Amino acid sequence: MKKRIMSLLALVLILSLVSVPAYAASDEATTSAQALYQLGLFNGTGKDAQGNPVFDLDRTPTRYEAVTLLVRLLGRTNEAESKEWNTPFTDLNAGWAKPYVGYAYANKLTSGTSGTTYGGAGNATVSQYITFVLRALGYESGIDFQWDKAWELSDKLGITNGQYNSTTHFTRGDVVIISFNALSAKIKNKDTTLFEDLTARGVVKEHTHNYIEQAIPGSGHYEQVQVGTETVVVGTEKYWIIECKCCRQTFDNSDDFNWHTEPNNPNTDVKCWFAASNMYQRKREITQTQPVYENRWVEDTIRVCSICGQQEP
To answer: Burial of 166 by CB count in 10 Å (0-12 exposed, 13-18 middle, 19+ buried)?
Structure first.
C-alpha cells in the first residue's frame, strides 16, 4: 500500500493534544514538528511555562544539532548514548553531542570538516542535512548523489520538492520538514519506508490514526463548480394595463382595480368605479434565476493519517 507523508495540512488530532506556541515558522514546519514530537522522533529545545514543547524552528541549527536530530529521527538515541565512540575529531567540545556525532560517524552518516575537526559549533547547511538523511536511507554520496547538491536526489525521492538550493537560509523548520517527509521515503533497494522500518523496530509511539484529505500533487481534474447565480431573460409576455380615469392609478389585475380607493382622498370610503377606466396592452420580459458555473481544476485526494502518513485502508 502506498504511504505518502505530506505536511501541508493542519494536524487536527495533534493540535487538540498539544497547544502550539506562536511561531514565525511556516505552517508546514510547525505541523511537521508536532507530528515528529508525537511520534517520539523530535524533542525540541525545551518547554514553555505551560509545559508545551518549544521547537525553536526559526533558528539555524548547528552541525551538532543537525546530527543529533538525525539520530533521533532514526530512533537510535539509546544506542548512541549507550556507547563510547571513537572519532578522529579533536574539537568535540559539546559533551552532550559526542554520542550522536560518534554514532553518526561510526555508521558513515556524517564526516568532519577536515580529517580531525567536526566543526560542530558551525551552522549546518541544507545540503549537509539532506546528505545525512540520504545516507541514512542507504544512498552513498559521490555515487548516488553529490553532497553539495543533495537536494537533486531528495527532489526525485519526494523528500523535497525543489524548494532548496545553495542559497537557502536553512533553519530548524527545514530540518523537521525534511525529516517528516523522509519518513515516507523508501530505504535504498528495499520496499520498506523509513517509517515502516521504525515501526518494525518499535521506535515510533503508538497513536490513533487521524485521517485527513490530502491532495495528490500533479493529479486532478476539471469540474463545474457553482460560483453564484444570475437573472436571465427567457422570454416576453403581453399583459393588460388598466388605468383609472378618475385617479389615474394603473393596475395589471382587474381584481385589484375594482372599487379601489383614491390615493389622495383622506376619506377611505370614497372608491373609484371600475367602469371609469381605460385598458391597453404592454409587453414585459420573463426572467429566471439560474446558477452560474465555472470550470475549475480540482486536485485528486487520498485520505492519509496526519501523524504517520499511512493511507486509510
So the answer is: exposed
Rg (CA), the chain: 35
> What values do phi and psi take at 144, rounded to 5?
-85, -25
- Distance in angstroms (rounded) separating the CA atoms of residues 45 and 25: 15
Residues 6+ apart with CB under 8 A from 131: 141, 145, 147, 150
Report the distance separating Cα 275 and Cα 206, nearest Å.
Answer: 90
Q: What are the E-state strand segments in 245-276?
A: 250-251
Distance CA 180, CA 157 (A): 13
Q: What is the pLDDT of residues 88-147, one digit of tens each?
A: 999 999 899 999 999 999 999 999 999 999 999 999 999 999 999 999 999 999 999 999
Report yes or no: 236 and 285 within 8 Å, Cβ to Cβ.
yes
**Calpha distance 141→109 (Å, rounded):** 10
Contact between 88 and 61 under an 8 Å Cβ cutoff? The reply is no
Ramachandran angles phi, psi of 296, nearest 5°: -130, 145
Beta strands in the chain (DSSP E): 46-47, 53-54, 211-244, 250-251, 277-305
How far does Cα 280 stand from its chain's mean position? 66
